[in-house]
């Protein structure tokens, strides 16, 4: 007897082996090996040098700046994403499809082009940049430019996560809350937000990962001033170009760890959602049993 | 609380949803808005609730203008067709929601909220499900939770949008009888929307039949059923046979047949509407409307349904009591005459299609 039976539509044994082998080979070659190499290179000359590379002043400055850019981009895009999703999912207005397209712009534009747009807009030679410079505000080749670029490239993540979710849920629950006497703010806090919380968290995780890892746009507006406008990805590039492989891969391992952490967090969120659904199903079965007992008692 | 609607109009683009509608709902009444989809009944209900804004016209609650009053201040209960229960809250929290969002000054204490919620859940016979989530309930249970939730804030008016539309036939019947009983207990002014004529006629005190954004007829259920005011209402309230002819000197003439009608002016073209159970079958042409050949006989249930075929190929449906059917001894292929016990004649003669 076979341990498990296959559905009649399943492929033959050889085909399954071949397909699995191709998938495993591909994953190893393009994901697992590079991942392994990053840590191997970083630790190639011992833990001591690894820590030294991370504790280096320039590295610490880069980490700080990366954290700063993320700390600004995250709440900004959280608020913006929720507002935009609310607008698009709940209201019909002229220019709705235009707004929807604009939200996707950072996805469709190359990050380098995005960086160049900021340089052109805020550079010293542009009217706006000149005016800001005269009032003591420097955007290009400064921290504010890096923050702006980070905000720009992470613009769509929260909104794109929420819009389909809110559209599929519809506005009826919110209308029900309003009829019951709730204010707009109460409705938002007690009905809208709890309904989208997992989608929102998912969007935040993605925004965080992208904000920390962004290279192209930030590279253009940064100007590469050491200790001032260097983020972690830029720092890695500089170290690599200077043949400081241990330093470059040590910093790279940090970003890789972040990526892994993001994946874990993402899996956790998905797992919790699945578990909540499973629990609801389980409880339903309990309730059914309870209902039967209840009915039996009533009829007795 | 009474509701009055004056000259209410609403259009969505080119589509006229409501066209200068006037309506009065008396205090403590259970009123049904009946009509086909797109007739404006739901739009009217949502405007009374304050969920949609009219283009023109007025809405009065207890004689006071409430047209611009915000939905959260109208003190109405609204039951949505798809329940719209808060999916992340338990049944208890759903019902308690309206009380818990009240401003601190008027919000009842925790213990009082619990008592109120539990007594409402008892009223809808679901107190044993207080800890369940909406996803765990059946359709009928969800609908009753939605009802309890809307009653928790002690609304002055209860509005229900196709409340039984998404339920299966058996649950639907039970629930509408239950709604009628509930209304007899609490006497809350209630308006419900439905496209099911049986539901409207069975549950409500008065029925409002709507079509194309206008009110066609308002009246008590049996009044509307017995004396439909227009061809549309006749059509909408059930199966009906059409007979085209003309009115001449107190009788309706259809080809060689003549049937006496009283109090009707002469008309070159007229249509008589007769329900299948208002038609009798005879072997003589005297006073008949038409003749036909018996094509099919369905003898299941207390009524025997016969399908007759006229010479021009049109079908006539007749529903006879079983005894009458046995007495006549009809078999398929017989040529018989149909005679109305009751008919509605509308001059004009144009066919009315829904």
Task: Please characterize this protein's 3D structure.
The complex is a heterodimer of chains A (300) and B (354). Chain A has helices at 13-42, 46-55, 57-90, 96-108, 111-122, 127-134, 143-154, 156-169, 172-179, 184-213, 216-222, 232-241, 245-299. Chain A is mainly α. Chain B is of the alpha+beta class and 354 residues long. Chain B contains 9 helices and 20 strands. In chain B, strands 6-7-8-3-9-10 form a 6-stranded mixed β-sheet, sandwiched between helices. In chain B, strands 13-12-11-14-20 form a 5-stranded antiparallel β-sheet, with no helix packed on it. In chain B, strands 15-19-16-17-18 form a 5-stranded antiparallel β-sheet. Chain B is elongated and about 80 Å long. Chain B starts with a strand and ends in a 7-residue tail after the last strand. The interface between A and B is medium-sized, with 23 and 32 residues.
Keywords, separated by commas or semicolons:
heterodimer; A: 300 residues; mainly alpha; 13 helices; 81% helix; B: 354 residues; alpha+beta; six-stranded mixed beta sheet; 25% helix
Q: Most extensive interface, residues per chain?
A: A-B, 23 and 32 residues
Estimated radius of gyration of chain A: 26 Å
Q: What is the assembly state of the chains in this entry?
A: heterodimer
Biggest β-sheet description of chain A = none
The secondary structure category of chain A is mainly alpha
Structural class of chain B: alpha+beta
| Count of individual helical segments of chain A | 13
State the helical fraction of chain B. Answer: 25-40%
Poorly predicted regions of chain B are none
Please provide the ordered H/E string of secondary-structure elements of chain A.
HHHHHHHHHHHHH
Q: If you average the pLDDT of chain A, what whole number results? A: 87
Major β-sheet profile of chain B: 6 strands, mixed
